[in-house]
Amino acid sequence: MKPSRLLSVLTGIVMTCAAALAAAAPAAASVATDAAAAATAAPRAGGAEGADHFRVTLLGTGTPVPSPARAGYSTLVEAGGQKLIFDFGRNVSVRLWQLRIPLGSVDAHFLTHFHSDHLVGLPDLWLTGWLRPPYGRRDRPMALYGPAGTRALADGLRQAFAADIAIRHKDEGSALTGITIDAHDVAPGVVYEKDGVRVTAFENDHGDHIRPSYGYRIDYRGRSVVLSGDTRFSPAVVAHRNWPCSAISA
Description:
Layout: H1 3-9, E1 13-16, H2 18-23, E2 29-32, H3 35-38, E3 54-60, E4 74-79, E5 82-86, H4 92-98, E6 108-110, H5 122-128, E7 142-146, H6 150-160, H7 162-172, E8 181-185, E9 189-194, E10 197-203, E11 214-220, E12 223-227, H8 235-239, E13 246-249
Parallel strand pairs: 2-3, 5-6, 6-7, 7-8
Antiparallel strand pairs: 1-12, 1-13, 3-4, 4-5, 9-10, 10-11, 11-12
């Protein structure tokens, strides 16, 4: 494959802004490239790392090809006491629990586009996160953000699993609040802002027939990370970087 062609099809570029991280040296900030390796660390409870904590973990970098060695595409961003998930590839729930993060403790969920390898893990994360502790425990609506069609996706999930939801509600007493999906069809721009964490969506260039397709920039206390999503070369991705940055192919 020619270098120019390879550049055009690179997917999942994660840009972490090194300058801002270095300037905030006293604050905890890191990029974990393997959730399985990170699982050897102590369990992480929400907010336990302190208000300045900023961490990016690649939960999976796989493709549609089934592989026991690679989980599907998903990225966890922790900022202060908040946990944000971007895309939901195969085994995202397993990877989160390897880190001893209760699935229901995730604050917000973001979808880049509607390819199955980026969302096949969403039903599992949604449903299992509703179950009892320690791995479930969601007691509030699941916040979901994505391109136009995200609300329709959520409606379809509710219909597909209506029987399971009804059974668990009656048999286990699970509160229906935790199985509610608060879904948002978002346009490019700031789509989430809470306690100093800001998430900005922008259109990338995944392909002529794959639209809308988004990347996201996450800002927190002077630091930022840009998740390009699957994309060819895209001026929008470049425009949302904060040089100097390091780039990681995911």
